[in-house]
Design goal:
By secondary structure, the protein is mainly alpha-helical. The chain has twelve helices and no strands. The model has no long low-confidence stretch (mean pLDDT about 80). Pfam families: BPD_transp_1 (PF00528).
Length: about 300
């Protein structure tokens, strides 16, 4: 187990390095120059030499210097505001973590409900299994707009502006949770079907166990590993989904920060956001690998 964990940790660090390198190279190759956009203004009276100095300051001194800075927790400075990138991330991260955590907490029970309901009801099985495909096919921005139209303008249940902290979370959480729950529900439903087709199921049924007991006590345990893998993957996607969701609902989080950085070509901020998203993805999947042997001792 220790050797497996060390191997997976090494792979995780390699993935983080690859994500940093790819993001750095792509951002450097991106057309446009954020420094020129902000500082090449005749009213500022800056000479080309001074602009070149400012550019070298924000570029971080090259790849190795930037990489060492990231390893030490120094993400550089935002071109847009001139403040440390770490401070800007610290301002937006709590709101995004709150949104992503609440969305994931809602997505998992929703996926479990759909998957288990499809196994319980043979009449509604086809309809229930079609629900995840519909959920995942709706664009996030469109889903957010539709939810605002329905719950805010039509039903008047959630205020568009103002409201309590909980009310401000309802629609963004639904917008993120619905598409995230879809792949989990699909994989869990297929895994339950596979588990129910195993030879042990008729044996347990012959001993007098009801279908509900077989489903929840026996099949669910064998169906969890693949569903847990997909859940880990989708949790990593919540950071990407928050970009659109926070923009639609005007929330000041990492997603909104990313949208502003793209508009201003603030490459230090964009690089930090990419590495942050990769770190969340890697850590969650590393946690899933640790949980696998607990759920299924055969994998230990």
């Amino acid at each position: 187990m220790t050797a497996h964990l060390l191997r997976r940790t090494g792979q995780a660090l390699l993935v983080l390095w690859a994500a940093f390198t790819a993001a750095y190279l792509l951002l450097q190759a991106m057309p446009g120059d954020a420094v020129l956009i902000k500082f090449q203004n005749p009213e500022l009276g800056l000479s080309p030499e001074r602009i070149a100095e400012i550019r070298s300051y924000y570029d971080g001194g090259g790849y190795l210097h930037t990489l060492l800075g990231f390893l030490q927790g120094d993400f550089g400075y935002s071109v847009e505001t001139g403040t440390p990138v770490l401070d800007r991330l610290a301002e937006g991260l709590p709101a995004t973590a709150e949104l992503a955590g609440a969305a994931f907490a809602l997505a998992v029970p929703l996926a479990v409900l759909i998957a288990f309901a499809s196994c319980h009801s043979t009449r509604l099985r086809g309809l229930l299994l079609a629900v995840p495909s519909l959920m995942v096919s709706v664009p996030v921005f469109l889903l957010g707009i539709l939810l605002v139209q329905l719950f805010s303008f039509r039903l008047g249940l959630v205020p568009v502006i103002g409201g309590s902290r909980a009310q401000q979370l309802v629609l963004p959480v639904l917008t993120l949770a619905v598409p995230v729950s879809a792949p989990i529900a699909q994989v869990l439903a297929r895994a339950l079907d596979h588990a129910l087709a195993q030879p042990y199921v008729p044996v347990v049924a012959a001993k007098g166990a009801s279908r509900s007991r077989i489903l929840w006590r026996h099949a669910a345990r064998n169906a969890l590993p693949p569903a847990l893998t997909v859940a880990g993957l989708t949790f990593g996607e919540l950071v990407a989904g928050s970009v659109v969701t926070e923009t639609v609902f005007g929330r000041n989080g990492v997603g909104r920060l990313t949208e502003q950085a793209v508009d201003s070509q603030d490459t230090p901020v964009l690089l930090a956001v990419v590495v942050l998203a990769a770190a969340v993805f890697v850590l969650v999947n590393l946690l899933v690998d640790v949980l696998f042997p607990i759920l299924d001792p055969r994998l230990a």
